[in-house]
Amino acid sequence: MIRGWQYRIAAFTALASLVGMAHTAQAAQCGNSAAGFENWKREFSQEAKANGVGQTAISALMNTDYATATIRADRGQKSFRLSLDQFMAKRGAPVIVSRGRSLKQSNASLFASLEQRYGVPPGPLIAIWGMETAFGTQRGNQNTLSAVATLAYDCRRSEFFTDQLYAALELIDRGVLSGSTRGSMHGEIGQTQFMPKNILQYGRGGNLDNTADALEATANFLKAHGWRAGAGYQPGEPNFRAIQAWNAASVYQQAIALIGQQIDGGTRRSAER
């Protein structure tokens, strides 16, 4: 368990703001193919070093490869355009609900502790866990740093992923991640698939490959995005906004809310709208 660096998150956030201004002013040139990636790495590495990134992380960055599979996945997220029923079927919602109810019972003390501390009931946490990694069984095998670096280089969402890349490099310098860390196609890692910046902000210093740490980080994320204990989390209810913060896709948000409600037994409804 790496606990010490969590107390430096506030300082890093302030640093990240300054870094953001710095690399905006002298940003390495983005591209739309593998052709310019090596030159971009050299330019970005110089900028990162000037912004305080350490040699361990710089060396890891220089060893990254252009992640063609990540680009292909980023261009082909067709499931988010499905109807809710189609999306639920494609993602195996009945299996998530069935397995989720079992896990809720077998981990009752953990979920009770998380609800007491963060106000988040088991349903949405289990729904996210099941949806993201099939309860930890499908965490991805893509090199995390290569994925994030490729997307920072790619012109489509360069600004967003540049922030993620700086966070990943910070985590490598701290020893939380390494250049060989593996995860999903966009750089998500752990049981509930946290991006590097969210690890810094909400990971609480835990190992997100560990179930308890990952679920705590997820509950912490939801609480930080306005989750209120006892309030409902279906569309139109107060806590649905926190689910929306987790993922931008409307069909995903609705699925998490519905699966969570089915796991929770449909009893957690809020009188406050």
Automatic annotation (TrEMBL):
Keyword check for Signal, yes or no: yes
Top-level taxon of the source organism: Bacteria
Keywords, A to Z, come to: Signal
Tell me where in this chain the Transglycosylase SLT domain is found: 37-233
- Output the Gene Ontology terms for molecular function: peptidoglycan lytic transglycosylase activity
Q: Which residues form the signal peptide?
A: 1-27
Record-annotated membrane-spanning stretches: none
The name of this protein is Membrane-bound lytic murein transglycosylase B
Q: Lineage of the native species?
A: Bacteria, Pseudomonadati, Pseudomonadota, Alphaproteobacteria, Hyphomicrobiales
